[in-house]
Amino acid sequence: xxxxxxxxxxxxxxxxxxxxxxxxxxxxxxxxxxxxxxxxxxxxxxxxxxxxxxxxxxxxxxxxxxxxxxxxxxxxxxxxxxxxxxxxxxxxxxxxxxxxxxxxxxxxxxxxxxxxxxxxxxxxxxxxxxxxxxxxxxxxxxxxxxxxxxxxxxxxxxxxxxxxxxxxxxxxxxxxxxxxxxxxxxxxxxxxxxxxxxxxxxxxxxxxxxxxxxxxxxxxxxxxxxxxxxxxxxxxxxxxxxxxxxxxxxxxxxxxxxxxxxxxxxxxxxxxxxxxxxxxxxxxxxxxxxxxxxxxxxxxxxxxxxxxxxxxxxxxxxxxxxxxxxxxxxxxxxxxxxxxxxxxxxxxxxxxxxxxxxxxxxxxxxxxxxxxxxxxxxxxxxxxxxxxx
Length: 389
Ligand SMILES: NC(=O)c1ccc[n+]([C@@H]2O[C@H](COP(=O)([O-])OP(=O)(O)OC[C@H]3O[C@@H](n4cnc5c(N)ncnc54)[C@H](O)[C@@H]3O)[C@@H](O)[C@H]2O)c1
Hints:
389 residues; alpha/beta; Rossmann fold; Dihydrodipicolinate Reductase, domain 2; eight-stranded mixed sheet; six-stranded parallel sheet; 13 helices; globular; binds nicotinamide-adenine-dinucleotide
């Protein structure tokens, strides 16, 4: 039973990799919910839901808007390609169905504003999953920072190298993740959202006031999006974070936070999909004794916790507890979009973005309306609708 002693009726919208491989094991580990309906245009996905989840055919919708109107669910979990998020979340709010969305909240700030407004107007909670923040190693690191273990944090570094690793000669060559009109960009708006909220968390949740970034497309030649990004995020009081991410083969990563009284570092090791599927996380804290923060027991399926903390946070939001709101998801998105603007023009970008800015209105695609320098990476690599392969 949930804290409220009643069962939440949940619908899943989008039954792809995130839903099947990452979320369902987490849902299975949570009490007080029942998966009662699904929606996916793919007949194969709907048949699988009948077969493996035992959901009757009449509750397996091809059209997600029918699910939202059905009255069958209290809340939906949206795991669909990014270009569908805004319309689905607005429709959910208008139908009075609470919704939790995967990152990114949307592809542009104009879309994000529509979602925030619909949630506020209807009083319907919209949550955003910041699931990496609940991974045992990241949660432990944040807890130590909040306890003051390293004093005042002034610098954080998040790196994730070689994540996603699309096989561009295989089925992934046509992946929607590599097409800007569907994904809203490449690694920055995708994995980068996780890195952004982790970095902000390690700086104590401070507001980011300035963003500088470079992006490039080096290894992943299919599609029209970037496969690497380096960002610098600055707070008003001079603290900052650096974020380095690449798509491609191999996978490693580490997270460091430096404070007035010490340093914490976590290294994610062991496995092709580290660091997001943390096989082993070893933390060191200086200024005290070296300390192993957390070692995961690999005999346990890591996917039971992959989304569990984020889903539980959303369920708490439905009970009126603080959660990660659409406005929070918007803030993460704004930083990713500022990174695109910075990378396109060169130089730092002050936040907030101006509503008249094409990047505010159209997301990454909007950089093409800017007065780009002749050597801009956007032109050189034909990104974001520039005709790259
Ligand atoms: N937070 C994480 O750790 C994490 C990990 C992976 C993916 N994701 C996110 O999850 C979301 C889905 O990614 P994925 O990897 O599962 O993609 P995917 O391509 O594997 O699956 C997407 C599914 O959505 C369905 N779909 C497409 N349009 C739809 C619509 N309008 N209504 C209902 N279903 C629709 C597709 O048929 C497909 O089954 C994205 O936002 C992605 O960024 C998050």
